[in-house]
Write a structure and sequence with these properties.
This is AraC family transcriptional regulator. With 780 residues, this protein is α/β, with parallel strands linked by helices. The protein is built from 28 helices and 29 strands.
Length: 780
């Protein structure tokens, strides 16, 4: 066993025979480099293999043992030191998941392997300049990783609250901030508003030593660091760290190490000895611990491999370079690559249709995506329409051309049907007058393609909602006949509450032609995202909500189509994360995996309309919008466009690819879909570790010559915010800037001719949430 101490930690290279971590004094991390080890942790037994990292928390009962040769890095961090750096330490535990965990957790565990290996290497190179700084940096990053990514509340925190009550925590924090000046137990008692004797007894009871000894140990700990790393005289260090004279420091050094401070500094800087910990130097090895010999010749290659990015895949299950073989069957699966899906495009108010910019966007959506419905967030009934009841038929054509009529006339010309929201404030008389006006002004065929959706009052009784819905349905059928009428459900945040909620509204639901609902991963979790919310429950939020809703409807005997009125993937809650977290493949796959029961999805037309309409909801976490300012398309626009481009029959598919056969040849979609907490998007290491290079080998394409188109859609090929960063300015955008951004915010197209025999090989470098879309045109 090789053991090196630094400050309040010990790093060891060990060969386990039997080891009992001292969990009362240390948090212990074990990184197994080679071989296997058995672990009993709090009564549960498991076997660890090379590459595994485990953490033993304070109070855990653990035993490592194995008779066969193994090698591991063991890092012990003093609990008191951890508490000084992290005030919630005694109410927190750290849990490292196993291999079956989310992508970001796997990457952060891999980063921890690298830091543990780097710290072990620095401990071996004690004679080299900077090794102390390297160990300090690694220790800080390991502790930060544990606190930031793997902490959770300690449920059984009673023993620790007994040892460190709130009052003692405050006293220790005050001592840590003021140890350099003369402080006393009397001053501490006055600040804590208790008596001298009471605080003295409480401190000894909880901490285990008296106030003066703890203060002396705290000062000594900082003196050791200055002795090793600083150049001040020993007497100056002693006075700066709170000792009244250098003699006190010298006595402590001799008591712990048998050396004077000058000897400790000389031995440490010449590499003769490493600096022991002030709190652990006098602690004898735990009884029963047995270790085999460790050969540094064997250890060093394993450690250096752990710090080499090219070799990390040998230490972790996560791989940056992948090779996939796809065998295309002779016959397809007999179904289309996507379910038919209608799109509902939302604007703020109907009068916006009269703006030139809105009309350009509407035309662009129709040309590049296809037919869709238009939805107005503000009530369409708040706009005045001619009173048909008060007009004789002969004078109807002379009515003033209102904004409502002009907007509807434009939509009629463009053949864009409406989705009409019927809120709780819309009376039957108002609805009747509006429908009568529309029937007299526009073609019935266009009107019958409209969709109406009722938004019930939040406080209304279910039986009143059902009766109101029935009257609206009768009124619409009288005027339009075939027009569809749906109802919007304000689903509870918790899926477990769906059953009771839907049962109470069964009478309304069985009358509806479709059901609208919301599945936005951000809105119910916005507050939790701002803290340490574990995002894994939001990873598949849309599919979880949709499947739960479908399941509960089936139990009620309903197979009603669903309309996803409001939705979004997890984005975070700031402009920074929303801009840097590219989600092209994530949005594409979300649309591709919607159940067949979902017949329509809603998107906003542009960000400006959304911000004006949803002033209480940040646009970064609201529903998705197709356009940014100045008619610049956002990634969701291209994700939908690529989805609608898919044709033919599915031949084969996997978790990250889809192959279809079309009348012109083949289509192939390849993605690197990554879902992680967007609050982490500032972590550059995390970004680089998620990038992949996938070598795809496709077998059994029909041999021949093909013209191959490839669209690359990722952060630097079609992402809006990356382009905005390249043209960053605090002032206005002129036409040239807008045109450049607009031209560059599209997926990059490349074309090549290639003769395919038995195997087609393509190498793809995929960034986070990147999408590769191939079309192979057969040349005859």
């Amino acid at each position: 066993m090789r053991n090196v101490s630094y400050m309040d930690s010990q790093i060891k290279l060990v060969n386990f025979i039997e080891f009992y971590p001292d969990s009362e004094k240390f948090v212990t991390l074990v990184y197994l480099l080679a071989g296997s080890v058995r672990l009993t942790l709090n009564g549960k037994q498991s076997e660890l293999h090379a590459g595994r990292v485990v953490v033993i928390n304070k109070g855990d009962q653990a035993r490592f043992w194995h008779e066969e040769k193994n090698m591991a890095v063991v890092l012990e961090i003093a609990c008191d030191y951890f508490f000084q750096q992290y005030r919630d330490f005694y109410s927190t535990k750290f849990t490292l998941p196993d291999e079956e965990c989310s992508n970001y957790a796997r990457v952060m565990i891999e980063q921890m392997r690298v830091k543990l290996a780097s710290m072990a290497i620095a401990s071996i190179r004690t004679g080299q300049n900077g090794h102390v700084l390297e160990m300090s940096r690694c220790l800080s990053e390991i502790m930060l990783t544990l606190v930031r990514y793997f902490n959770s509340p300690r449920k059984e925190c009673a023993p620790f609250s007994v040892r460190y009550s709130k009052r003692i925590e405050q006293v220790i924090a005050w001592m840590t901030d003021n140890y350099r000046r003369p402080i006393s137990l009397t001053e501490a008692a006055d600040r804590a508003f208790v008596s001298f004797s009471y605080l003295s007894r409480l401190f000894i009871k909880e901490v285990g030593i008296n106030f003066s000894d703890y203060l002396r140990q705290l000062r000594f700990q900082h003196c050791l660091h200055e002795i090793a790393t600083g150049n001040d005289t020993i007497s100056r260090i002693a006075l700066q760290q709170g000792f009244t004279n250098v003699r006190q420091l010298t006595l402590l050094c001799k008591r712990h190490y048998g050396k004077t401070p000058v000897q400790i500094r000389r031995d440490y800087k010449t590499g003769v000895a490493a600096l022991p910990s002030a709190q652990t130097a006098h602690v004898p090895p735990a009884k029963g611990n047995r270790f085999g010999p460790v050969d540094l010749v064997d250890a060093f290659p394993l450690l250096t491999a752990g710090t080499n990015p090219q070799c990390r895949d040998t230490l972790a299950p996560y791989m940056h370079n992948e090779e996939q073989r796809v065998i295309v069957p002779a016959r397809g699966k007999g179904h289309a690559p996507k379910e038919p899906l209608a799109y509902i495009v939302t604007i703020g108010g109907l009068e916006e249709v009269l703006k030139d910019s809105i009309q350009r966007q509407l035309r662009s959506v129709k040309e590049q995506i296809g037919a869709y419905y238009l939805d107005c967030y503000d009530s369409i009934f708040s706009r005045p329409v001619p009173d048909i009841y008060a007009l004789p038929p002969k004078t109807f054509h002379t009515v003033c051309y209102s904004e409502t009529e002009r907007a509807l006339a434009y939509l009629n010309t463009m053949d864009i049907p409406l989705v009409v929201r019927i809120g709780q404030d819309v009376t039957l008389a108002v609805l009747d007058g509006f429908l009568r006006y529309c029937v007299n002004a526009f073609s019935r065929e266009w009107l019958q393609r409209w969709r109406f959706i009722v938004y019930p009052a939040a406080c209304a009784k279910p039986q009143d909602d059902a009766e109101h819905f029935r009257h609206i349905s009768q009124l619409i059928n009288r005027w339009l006949g075939a027009a569809k009428l749906g109802v919007f459900l304000s689903l509870p945040d918790e899926i477990t509450d769906f059953s009771a909620y839907l049962t109470h509204r069964h009478d309304s639901l069985k009358q509806a032609d479709f059901i609208g609902y919301c599945a936005n991963a951000n809105l119910p979790n916005e507050r939790r995202l701002a803290s340490h919310y574990v995002f894994t429950q939001s990873e598949m939020h849309i599919s979880r909500v949709t499947e739960a809703l479908s399941r509960e409807l089936r139990t009620l005997g309903l197979l009603t189509p669903l309309c996803l009125v409001e939705w979004n993937t997890l984005t975070g809650s700031s402009y920074r994360t929303n801009g840097s977290f590219f989600r092209g493949a994530l949005i594409f796959n979300t649309l591709m995996t919607l159940p067949a029961q979902v017949c329509a999805v809603n998107v906003w037309l542009n960000l400006e309309s959304q911000r004006w309409a949803l002033q209480d909801i940040p646009s970064e976490i609201g529903s998705l919008a197709l356009f940014h300012v100045f008619n610049i398309p956002r990634p969701v626009f291209h994700a939908i466009r690529l989805r609608e481009r898919l044709k033919g029959e599915v031949l084969t598919c996997g978790s990250n690819y889809l192959v279809t056969m079309t009348d012109f040849g083949y289509q192939l979609v390849l993605s690197n879909t990554i879902t992680f907490d967007p609050q982490l998007t500032a972590e550059e290491d995390l970004f680089s570790c998620f990038k992949k290079q996938i070598t795809l080998k496709v077998m059994n394409f029909q041999p021949g010559l093909y013209r191959i188109k490839r669209w690359q859609f990722d952060q630097q090929h079609g992402a809006l915010f990356w382009q905005l960063e390249q043209t960053s300015t605090c002032y206005w955008w002129d036409d040239e800037i807008v045109e450049t951004i607009n031209r560059n915010t599209v997926p990059t197209l490349s074309v090549v001719d290639e003769h395919i025999a038995q195997e087609w090989v393509t190498v793809n470098k995929l960034d986070i949430n990147a999408l590769m879309f191939y079309e192979l045109y057969r040349v005859y």
